[in-house]
Structures are given as C-alpha cells and as structure tokens.
Amino acid sequence: MSRSGADLALLLLGGFRALADAASVELAARGHEKIRPVHDFAIRAIDAGADTASALARQLGVSKQAAAKTLGFLEERGYVTGNADQRDPRRRRFAVTPEGHALLATGEQVFDELRDRWAQRIGVNELERLEEALADLGIKTPSRLDAPGWLAGASPQRASTEPAIRDRPAFH
Known about the structure:
This protein has eight helices and two strands; from the N terminus they run ααααββαααα. By secondary structure, the chain is mostly helical. It has a two-stranded antiparallel sheet with strand order 1-2. Helix 1 packs across helix 5 and helix 5 packs across helix 6.
C-alpha cells in the first residue's frame, strides 16, 4: 500500500502524540496529574536559563501570556518556584525545584517503559530499524523546545535565531 507524504507526516505526528498521551496517563498514575509535553518543554527551558516569562515565551515560541499560564501551572504544583528579580521587582525569575527534576526523571523512565512496550509489540529489531531509518533520513532529537509555538505557526526564521537548548529536549 502506497501512502502519501502527508500520510507519513501524520503518522510521525501520531506516533509522537501516542507516546505523549500514554506518558501523560502514566505520569498521572504516578502522582503527576495533567502533565503535557509543554510542561516538560518548559521545565527543560527554565533549567537551561529561560528563567522569566519573556525568556520562556521565546524558547517555547508562544506568547508571554501562554508562558505565564504555564509557569503558573508549574509553580502551583511545586515544579518551579518564582521570586522577584533583585534588579527589577516587577519581573519574576523562576527555577526548577527538586520536584520538577523528579518529574523529568520519572518522565524519562516512563518513556523508556513505553519504548519497551513498542518493542514488545513490533519487535526489538523492527523498532531499532525504525529508529535507524529516521536517523538515516536526518531526523534528530530536536535541540529546540519550541514545538508548542511551531505547531501554532511560529516563524521558522525567528526560531532559528534563538539559542538552542542543549539538554535532551524530549517530552519525558
């Protein structure tokens, strides 16, 4: 059966979504309710230095209002903490808490388990072949965390001018 290029793009997106949705369910079962990919992206960006709402908005490719909402969610649940900037008390600086780092570690474990389930379902060799084929096509682990904004139509030119996050930027 021959598929279109659009079908392939949707299958790849569907694979990401299937893993992300399953991870959210598993994280909720482990006490981290309502966690979505954007929360992981935000925690990683904050940890890498995007410690204000404006900086986080730029890193995620979203509005400052959307970044502030994400920060509020994360702060309310104890994954980040915010304090007034000593130079500008109108601005708040955020840092990842031990609970935020624990969430990332739990997420990584969950994704390893989900990968194992996929390997059981289609076979280890087939999954490794899929990963190798994607790598052969030049598909890499993203170095940017701007998927939320990119999916909403953020400019690729703008995204390419900002510094890349160097940590492993996958939803974990």
